[in-house]
TrEMBL record:
InterPro entries: NfsB-like (IPR033878), Nitroreductase (IPR029479), Nitroreductase-like (IPR000415)
Alphabetical list of PANTHER family matching this protein: NAD(P)H NITROREDUCTASE YDGI-RELATED, NITROREDUCTASE
Family: Belongs to the nitroreductase family.
Cofactor needs: FMN
Name this polypeptide is given: NAD(P)H-dependent oxidoreductase
Keyword line: Flavoprotein, FMN, NADP, Oxidoreductase
The keyword Flavoprotein belongs to this UniProt entry's keyword annotation: yes
Residue span, Nitroreductase domain: 10-186
Length: 210
């Protein structure tokens, strides 16, 4: 039987990480693959995931992440960044990837590519940026669930200043915008939050049957 529900009950947004415990390279590769396999609209994956390993950079990011200690204490720091002004260039690259992966001529995929372009490029740049930023949340959910399966803690964060993250990490020049942060590691024994009962709405409150 699946341990999914058990794992979901076990995980929580860790408030204090044990800085002496590091996630193994093998487990990091597993988590990367879980993120890589995440669902996204049209399979386009309109984002990048940045692993911030440099401790000096992490120290610079902490003040613009509300001073949260997870930024520097967790084993790994990930920044999910949506691709800004997503358009024809990225769609063409995706079509080429499909052709290569599935052994198809690109001409056979022209109709699909044109369909995506008609739906995406017709949006304003602001709306396209909102759309690509939403895709990062899907990837984050895969990370949360995969990490819980390994007994690894993840804290998803929206409490940071995206513009400052973009500046410190040089994301704007790369056509990227920080949308989400996730810290990965192992909960500290002193983090009392791990002992709190999980609070969620009841089925009756949450679900509507029509």
């Amino acid at each position: 039987m699946s341990n999914f529900i058990k794992n979901a009950n076990w995980r929580y947004a860790t408030k204090k990480f044990d800085p002496t415990k590091k996630v193994s390279n093998e487990d990091i590769e597993f988590l990367k693959e879980a993120v890589r396999l995440s669902a996204s609209s049209y399979g386009l994956q309109p984002y990048k995931v940045i692993f911030v390993e440099n401790p000096e950079l992490r120290a610079q990011l902490q003040p613009v992440a509300w001073g949260q200690t997870q930024i520097v204490d967790a084993s790994h720091l990930l920044v999910f960044a949506n691709i800004t002004n997503f358009g024809e260039t990225q769609i063409d690259a995706h079509i080429n990837n499909i052709a290569v992966t599935r052994g198809l001529p690109t001409d056979a995929l022209k109709g699909y590519g044109d369909f995506m372009k008609s739906k995406i490029t017709s949006l304003s740049e602001d709306n396209r940026n909102v759309w690509t930023s939403k895709q990062t949340y899907i990837a984050l959910s895969n990370l949360l669930n995969a990490a819980a399966e390994l007994g690894i803690d993840v804290t998803p964060m929206e409490g940071f200043e995206p513009e400052k993250f973009n500046e410190i990490l040089g994301l704007t020049e790369l056509g990227l915008n920080a949308t989400l942060v996730a810290t990965i590691g192992y909960r500290h024994a002193e983090d009392d939050t791990q002992n709190y009962a999980k609070v969620r709405k009841s089925n009756e409150e949450l679900f509507i049957n029509l």
